[in-house]
Amino acid sequence: MGFVQKDSLRTMLISYFGIGLGYLNKGILFLLILSTEEIGLINLIIGVGILFGRLANLGSVFTILRFFPFFQGSGRSNDGFLTFVMSILGFGITLFSFLFVFFRPEIACWYQENSALFVDYYLWVLPVGISYAVYLSLEMYLRSFQKNILSVLVFDIGLRLLVLLSLILFWKNIISFELFVLANCLFYVIPSLCLLIYMYYLRMLKFGPLHRVSKKFKSIMYNYSLTNYLNSLGNVVVNSLDILMIAQFIGLKATGVYTTIVFLTSALKVPYNALLRISTPLVSQYWKSKDMAAMEELYKKVSSVSLVIGLGSFLLLWLNIDFLFSFLKSEFQEGIWVFFFLMMGRLLDMYFGLNGAIFTTSKKYKYDLIFTLSLIVMVFLLNWYLIPIYGIIGAAISTGLALVLYNLSRLIFVLLAYDLNPFNLKQIPIIGLGILVLFLGDVFSTFIDHSLLQCVFQLALVGLLFFLPIYVFNLEPESKSYFHNGWKYLKSKSKV
Predict the structure, then answer these.
(1) Interatomic CA distance for residues 396 and 77, integer angstroms
(2) Which residues have C-beta within 8 Å of that of residue 415, sequence separation ≥ 6?
(3) Residue range 238-247, pLDDT digits in tens
(4) Domain map of the chain by residue range?
(5) Whose CA, among 116, 166, 258, 325, lies 20 to 30 Å from 355?
């Protein structure tokens, strides 16, 4: 885990800085400068664009993840592997661009009544979606070479700095709202261009035919990519269907509130995403070398670290939820319980760690399609039933419940099929500490009337009764090691 720690720490720090910029943009400036309907529009366009990108990627990221170890080092062009991946991507982008334009009248009918403004900007989803599809493949290709920093830097920081610039220009009436929206769509082209330039600089853009690869192996790669692409639709549905259905059933204002809360909860998964970014390629290597002991060790460590950071982040945020929401408009108060249910789903998703990566890179990956289809049906039916009754809270319940059931089913399958699980006994006192702090924080908050003092007390409570015992009693050694390495890294940078 030494290499994983070092690289994931860097990406985590960059991601947290990016989250800080994101909070400045979406958590503060969006609310001050834009109306709730305008927030809903821009977030819906970007959300549909992200959905388009994941669909148009057509499973090329899974091809890279699973099969690149078999091609790496086999010549200057890695036996034309990049050509193979780009051909899949090009076909996917062409297909879904055609479908998106062809079915425009039918899709527009769904949103004409409650989200008519989205129909006017419909085609501007394409630059977001196409650019994101390209970014996903290039980012995964670089990740296979353990080159993670630039991908995170340009997407998490560079993109948000450009959004910040456009917000300032709109606020100063230098650009119109229409130009602001179009600029935010075109900004998504830049990360992909940066990665292409970086790969060219490193002489990684080597295209060529797939030499010495049998038709049978090509068929295996196609089947694997298609199956995992269908499996990935589960996560796509969970992350997108609630937003699309809120815009359809309720309107852009509710979409603005919900998407803002979704972004606010994203900070919870920053450490996990950083760990996953580094750890997932290692899973593929362990399958290739059949090193199940190393895989289980990685599985448990990623789960334990994610539990500590995820549960601690949840406590810090939830115990101060009233204070945090006091800075938002009154129409956002409904989002408190949206925040809770989404965070529950994300926390469990983090705790179960690498089960998805292990499942999708194993020989039994096709079985995941059963879970995915069940998830899609469940999410759609839950949203269809709960959104009209409970509004955006119903959407959050649907998403949180779907994440819980989906991860539980995958966890059980990996356990039964490969005798791998992410649990260890040291996680029990960590969970116990979390429950204790949550209880004490709720009890003592009734005795403090001043909101700022209450916030300071809750922060101290989490620090002293959750993080400190874990550090002092070494309840999670990997997290302690992360802290030490992070401290050394920050000290070294401060001396430069």
Answers:
(1) 46
(2) 421
(3) 778 899 999 9
(4) 2-424
(5) 258
